[in-house]
Amino acid sequence: xWKKGVINRMRKGKxxxxxxxxxxxxxxxIASIPGLITGLLxxxxxxxxxxxxxxxxxxxxxxxxAKNLDEQFKxxxxxxxxWAMEPRFSESLRNMDFVxxxxxxxxISKTLLRLxxxxxxxxxxxxxxxxxxxxxxxxxYNVLSNKEKSEYRKxxxxxxxxxxxxxxxxxxxxxxxxxxxxxxxSFGSIIVKxxxxxxxxxxNTLIPYGEGASFLLNQEKQLILSSTSKDDxxxxxxxxxxxxxxxxLKSSFxxxxxxxxxxxxxxxxxxxxxxxxxxxxAPMSTITAPLVIVSRTILIISAIALLLAFIMSWLASRKxxxxxxxxxxxxxxxxxxxxxxxxKPLGKDEFVFIEEQWEELSKHSQSLQTRISExxxxxxxSFIFQLVQGYFSHYKEADLKKRMIHYGWKVEGxxxxxxxxQLSGLFTNEDQFSTKDESLVTFLASNIMDELAKEMFEEYHxxxxxxxxxxxxxxxxxxxxxxxxVVIFANKVTDAINQIIxxxxxxxxxxxxxxxxxxxxxxxxxxKWKRLRIFExxxxxxxxxxxxxxxxxxxxIYPFALxxxxxxxxxxxxxxxxxxxxxxxxxxxxxxxxxxxxxxQGVRQLYSSIQHEILHSGIHPHELFNGKDMYEELSxxxxxxxxxxxxxxxxxxxxxxxxxxxxxxxxxxxxxxxxIIIQENYxxxxxxxxxxxxxxxxxxSLSKAFKQIVGINFIDYLTQLRIEKAKDLLIHSNMKxxxxxxxxxxxxxxxxxxxxxxxxxxxxxxxxxNQENEYIPIERDGV
Length: 783
What we know:
Layout: H1 2-12, H2 18-29, H3 33-84, H4 102-116, E1 122-129, E2 135-137, E3 141-143, H5 146-156, E4 161-166, E5 172-179, E6 188-194, H6 196-203, E7 213-217, E8 223-226, H7 233-245, E9 252-257, E10 260-269, E11 276-283, H8 285-304, H9 309-335, H10 350-389, H11 397-406, E12 414-424, H12 438-456, E13 459-466, E14 469-477, H13 483-500, E15 504-509, H14 519-529, E16 540-543, H15 560-572, H16 575-591, H17 596-616, H18 621-624, H19 630-635, H20 640-681, H21 688-695, H22 699-710, H23 714-732, H24 737-743, H25 748-759, H26 763-770
Parallel strand pairs: 15-16
Antiparallel strand pairs: 1-2, 1-6, 2-3, 4-5, 5-6, 7-8, 7-11, 9-10, 10-11, 12-14, 12-15, 13-14
Domain HTH araC/xylS-type: 672-769
Organism: Metabacillus niabensis
Transmembrane segments: 24-46, 293-316
């Protein structure tokens, strides 16, 4: 719609365009020979210049896209080299029994699936182990047949890292890395198979106008990837022959095939095993033909203008303007997706518009370059993070120094010191942050550290280690001492986080080192020893250089007796006693040492015991707690009161509610069975004890449950049932009263007393009153 609006404005407002007016007036008042001269000048200069500019733009686009294509393959080569260096693919795989070591086999399959998702071009990652019975890992474990064995052994021949065509008819482009990396005696290989469709999509970026063809050739001029279809094989062969003829000429040239002129660009891609050649052919005739046709038309119209100067001047000017209009339309259409610049011809030269559009394209190109630079910076940050995590512990010191220098660090005569900042108090700061905001809080703390570090240290790097924890790596000259500055920095970070984030801080300062390989050990030591902080929600600074040995830590004594009482209270449902017992448990832990490592160790053990009780009851903790990581949640609590509340409301309360719900269902089933027993045996001598024994419970539990579910006591329910049966017999039968008493389970004398107590009158009187209209012969009861 935007493109059509531009064209309509151009057509309606041609008189407003300064270039159009100048040419119209020129043709109108200066005819004949001046018109021919003008046409020739336009033909040789304007048209040729625009044509050259378009060709130059096309070549530049191809070069930029070829670089992107090259970077994608380089990334895959770098990735597979790095994978091969991982311990997972070490020499231990050579003789491993993957059937017995099934867990290792499962981990390898998971690792291959994870590697498969590291790049969109990767379709599948396979691990081939060359032995008497070769093994292939992809999504699962496979033992190869003899035919498959020979195919995969061919891949192992030759270079240690190479690109190859594999699969059926050798149509799959694959990157093969032998294992172990760098060894002459290889036992297998990692095979990365590319997704052909996505690879073709990437290759098609070398065709900027959506028409033409592009290929990739290896060093032996073998076609490894082509965007042409089967119907274009003749064009493909002709183009490859032309490329072979022009291999010593420029990197771009024109090629004519089937009345169509193509702009062909040829270049090399540097691969690890051998260079590749890319070929891109895009039709240029669609761009240049209109300009040539129009320019020739100008010459013809200028000749006719000798006779019809005035009449044809308007038509001639329109024809002159036609290529400029088309060029503006082209620029507007191609640039519409990047900019919203609208052309307004009034008082504005058309070439100014072309210049502005060209500048917009240049800005977009610069923007892409900036994004690429930012990605390179992210790679640099990733290196420091991997160094801190110990991924490069197998590297030599000299190699690490080279990489550090490459990323802009000073390493000669430098020492390194690390700082760990651990935030606490998230549970006590619920008005501002919640547990879902841990990453955000860590990011804010990292920014605060970065701003303060700029003022105090010349060379440093901030690292987000984990949620609520951030690190700082400092590089400084070895002859200097910066401990005083580090302590000042720790205090400034603590004050800033207290004021801005409203959380407490534990700052751990490592010992210095002058070896890059030992940097990750600095962070390991800080992670270990920072757990010696006092388990209170307050600011603390731990200096590892001043820290005493582990032997100086107070002896940890676990209160097993209180643990048993807590478990017993949970079993008995004694909720009112549990809080005081847990408080006593925490107090006992605190008496023997209040460091975080002691308190956390104790409460984790208590939670483990409660979890065991939950499992023993037949309830799975994962289901009970909705899949939450309870250990992680517990480790983030830094207040003893919050620990008690956490146990009560997050662990014990859900468990008790689940037990009560399940117990109510069981009791209801038991009471239903008891009622059936009473209704079937009310005429017999029965008691609460006999019914409890029959349903397998205690008399106390049965009595309590019966009253809770039915609403009346067991004996009252039995009495009511017997009296109702007796009333029915008194009214509708001619049985003697002593017989009725025995039929409902009572002795005669006791039946009279209980009947009168329940109904208010003796049985005989009740029969007389209710049988006045029944006409049933009544026998005397003999009382």
